[in-house]
């Protein structure tokens, strides 16, 4: 198994962080890079949509929304075995939502192996951001205590929906999608160099930073050890099968199924933490972020994506 | 030049609360404040400031003592239990007292 070059940048950041090197990207750069990546992915999806009739994609899009809502509902009772209601709801929402960078690395993996995939998968990524967060908020409020804490902080439904629907990652992804859709391939052409050609080089810088961030999260592993590790590895492996199931149901090509499996297996670490912090303030953010970012993110990059590819090939 | 005695409320808290706090300041007719990104270590763990989701902010605002105390109390009641939050008041002397 050959490691994808973009992943090497992540490993460099991880090694530097663990070795306590003084390497640190300015947080303004991190913000800029994430804005770029989200916009670029959105635009790519918009261009893909511009090429095909919306009605062809609509049934698949509905299934993807359904998948996003089902994942936290399946996960929640399992997590409840060992976790409090609020922590289970928060983690379920993290895993139902997706990681844009994991998706980007999977795209890089597929293109290196010359495996084609449906262009509407980018739309799936955008659609999967939100439903799980809404379900997570509902789950956390099944009992009054959680709702009380959010209400105490003044976080009613209006504010929570605002955070879920208008969080920066959703705005940038959907914004990029609309720009790509409206401008079309010809309109975007002058911007190609920046948004399409530069995507991978920028991704490498972002992954370098992510390596540093993940190294910083290893402290949480020492604190919560086995549980976070079990969630961080077990949950994505299980969820990838849901992605494969939905992918087959939708009649996607092998590449499309691998991408959907990766989306199902990935956990959000930008949109979900912010939304869940507001919705369930008493959930422990170290637990969910430790599992999603400290374990699942590197696991998917290094092991998960090739494994989901193997899983998928069982059906083709 | 005359210096007027006022109170300065400083708070260090989680960045997710910024919108809520600004809303509260507006409700309470606070006339100005300064917000900066912060990093450091406290009871809620170390914030290294290099990652969006766990960033902290520090806010400073100057007003009369009674308003500052009442504001700090309300913030404590709403956010103190579940969010990282440290607040302190200092007595300061300002130029142009009517601005605060």
UniProtKB/TrEMBL annotation, chain B:
Name used for this protein in its record: Transcriptional regulator
Coiled coil: none
Domain of life: Bacteria
GO biological process: regulation of nitrogen utilization
InterPro entries: N-reg_PII, N-reg_PII-like_a/b, N-reg_PII/ATP_PRibTrfase_C
Gene3D superfamilies xrefs: 3.30.70.120
GO molecular function, one term: enzyme regulator activity
């Amino acid at each position: 198994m050959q490691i994808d070059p973009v992943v090497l940048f992540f490993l460099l950041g991880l090694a530097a962080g663990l070795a306590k090197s003084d390497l640190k990207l300015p947080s303004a750069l991190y913000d800029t890079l994430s804005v770029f990546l989200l916009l670029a992915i959105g635009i790519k999806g918009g261009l893909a949509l511009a090429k095909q009739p919306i009605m062809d994609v609509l049934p698949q899009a509905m299934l993807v929304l359904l998948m996003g809502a089902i994942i936290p509902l399946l996960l929640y009772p399992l997590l409840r075995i060992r976790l409090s209601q609020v922590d289970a709801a928060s983690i379920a929402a993290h895993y139902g939502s997706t990681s844009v960078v994991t998706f980007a690395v999977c795209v890089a993996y597929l293109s290196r192996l010359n495996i084609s995939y449906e262009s509407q998968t980018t739309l799936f990524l955008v659609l999967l951001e939100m439903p799980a967060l809404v379900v997570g908020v509902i789950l956390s409020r099944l009992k009054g205590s959680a709702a009380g804490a959010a209400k105490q902080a003044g976080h009613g439904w209006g504010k929570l929906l605002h955070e879920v629907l208008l969080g920066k990652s959703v705005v940038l992804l959907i914004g990029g999608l609309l720009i790509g859709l409206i401008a079309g391939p010809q309109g975007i052409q002058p911007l190609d160099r920046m948004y399409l050609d530069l995507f991978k080089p920028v991704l490498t810088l972002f992954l370098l930073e992510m390596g540093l961030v993940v190294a910083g999260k290893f402290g949480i592993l020492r604190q919560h050890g086995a549980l976070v590790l079990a969630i961080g590895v077990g949950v994505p492996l299980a969820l990838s099968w849901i992605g494969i199931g939905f992918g087959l149901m939708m009649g996607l090509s092998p590449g499309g199924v691998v991408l959907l499996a990766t989306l199902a297996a990935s956990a959000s670490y930008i949109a979900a933490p912010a939304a869940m912090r507001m919705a369930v303030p008493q959930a422990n953010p170290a637990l969910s972020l430790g599992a999603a970012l400290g374990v699942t993110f590197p696991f998917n990059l290094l092991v998960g994506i090739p494994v989901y590819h193997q899983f998928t090939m069982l059906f083709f | 030049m005359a210096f007027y005695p006022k109170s300065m409320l400083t708070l260090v808290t989680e960045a997710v609360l910024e919108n809520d706090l600004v809303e509260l300041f507006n409700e309470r007719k606070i006339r100005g404040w300064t917000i900066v990104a912060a990093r450091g270590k406290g009871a809620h763990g170390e914030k290294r400031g290099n990652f969006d989701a766990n960033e902290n902010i520090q806010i400073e605002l100057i007003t009369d003592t009674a308003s500052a105390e009442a504001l700090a109390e309300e913030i404590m009641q709403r956010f103190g239990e579940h969010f990282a939050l440290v607040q302190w008041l200092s007595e300061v002397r300002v130029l142009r007292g009517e601005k605060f």
